[in-house]
Amino acid sequence: MNVFIAGGTSGIGYALARHYLEKGYDVGICGRNLAKISENNLENVKTFQTDVCDMNAIATAVHTFLTGGQNLDIFINCAGSYAEDVAGKISYEEAEEMLQTNILGTVNCFETARKVMKGQKKGSIAVIASVSGILDYENSSLYTKTKRSVIQIADAYRRALKPFGISVTTIVPGYVDTEKLRQLNNNDLHKKPFLTDVETAVIHISEAIEKQKKRVIFPAKMKWMMKSLSVLPSFLLNTIMFRKAQWMKDDQP
Predict the structure, then answer these.
(1) 212 near 124, Cβ under 8 Å?
(2) What is the DSSP letter of 30?
(3) DSSP-assigned letter for residue 211
(4) Which of 178, 155, 171 is nearest to 204 (CA)?
(5) Are 127 and 106 in contact (CB under 8 A)?
(6) Rounded to the nearest 5°, which phi and psi values hold at 26?
(7) For residues 14 and 128, what is the distance between their CA atoms, to the nearest angstrom?
(8) Which family does it belong to (predicted)?
(9) Domains of the chain
């Protein structure tokens, strides 16, 4: 089995790469900063320094990974960018990076995998979205809007690729205890409800891909909380989510 993971140098992507290596699969990963891999001592993996915003670079990395006409069995896009803009302001550069990485990067990954798998008549594509993308309200953060876009993009590709035997799985996690999340919150995660450890997240994600599920939301408590919030009137949801963002920001320096 050949597995390629975009954004596989750290966090969930790195944990998935380790998971598939332990299963004996051939694994390729790409990311902007390959130095993270040496820090994590990930061995027997093919690495590519690639930005998902550059589709040609992603395509080259995948074709280089697949030597000798091999099939691409699984492609997982774990790349993402985050900046908070509800309770505080973000720079244009931060906004641009989120739009480019979370939307353009998602399309680039789907297109790369699609072109390879279409000729195979089989394959599995997965993308990491966010539980925040379930909510649809006017004043949601830019991050939330980009992740909602990821969910919609995945739905569109699922419909288009089904006739070719290609499955598309949308992974919609709540808070996952990664190094990145700890960095963003000064190592204080007490305001992150229903926190999931990385190992549990990997189990949810790998099982969803194996079973070719359309969409998986976890943990269950976060899933039901978000679904409950989604039925509220927009004006009330706006107020609740803004106050939540302020509350979460209060302890930040």
Answers:
(1) yes
(2) E
(3) T
(4) 171
(5) yes
(6) -85, 125
(7) 13
(8) Belongs to the short-chain dehydrogenases/reductases (SDR) family.
(9) 2-249 (3.40.50.720)
